[in-house]
Amino acid sequence: MSTRENVIRCPECNYLESRTSGTPLEHLKLPLWVFSYLLIESIELFPLGLSASAICRKLSVSKNTGTLLKRRLQMFLSDLIPLIKDEMVKDLKKAWKGKKLPESGDLKAFIEGRPVVHTDTLALFSASQRANGFRKRFKHKGQTASIYLTDAVAEEKGKYQIGTLVHTLAIKGGPVILSSIPDQKQKSLQPLFDFLPEDVPLFADEGMPWMERYNKNFRSINHSARAKDGKRNVWARNRWSRDGVHNQVSEGNQRIIKHSFLASYSYIRPENSILYLNEYSALKGIRVYGLERLVGKKKIDLLRNVGKGSVVIPFNHFA
What we know:
Oligomer: single chain
Organism: Leptospira kmetyi
Shape: globular
Helix content: 25-40%
Protein name: ISXO2-like transposase domain-containing protein
């Protein structure tokens, strides 16, 4: 209808129906071009994020409206994650069909020009010792000690988790899949690899020794390797890369993630972390594959990442 842009009329029975019903734009009181403008701004600003405060400044809207627009954008981008995973799986199957990594030797020539999945874990917005009441944390070890408070301080402040633990799946020059995890135990990490093809080449550090039992093409690099000449050097020179096996793709992406999140948001709550991580992953996927390839002739039946409900979004109406 010319006077109601979010309503369409059936040419046969004249039945009126909302074209934004069941989508992240349902009950949007602003013109549809506002959402299109925010989507384009987010794509152009990437890897920096478009914060709710920036939305308020650009559109001259209230803080509540800016926050709700940010949430609508995040839910829309979260819907693209399954499509990005599908494209990622297609590329991996095409490159590694019928191929396996040699059990030993240099892998540089074998993996050159082919996509390899790199995985690592990042502590985002970690809590300092000052935030923990100037007390050291003995209950948690490793990166989890950076995001959780001790029990006594948690009772005083009324919250237990401060930072966010982010799991990264990255391909060089390709997409990045980010997930929010509570710890680095096998029961928390293993489900994140279920969408990958069987025995796809996977590089990581020594934080996942159990992966060798499930993936024949899993390779790890020891970042704590000691030098052979202990009198002259402490660390081995090949502790970052050895025989073509390294973890620098995921670590490089994590450096960009940490910088962009600190510059864009200053801080995000752990309960909202999955929305922000999905937003970053989707924008990266749009940069890699393009929006037309992701949503050209596809429809998502369920909003699988955030809540439930059918989602059919007519992109041609947002142009």
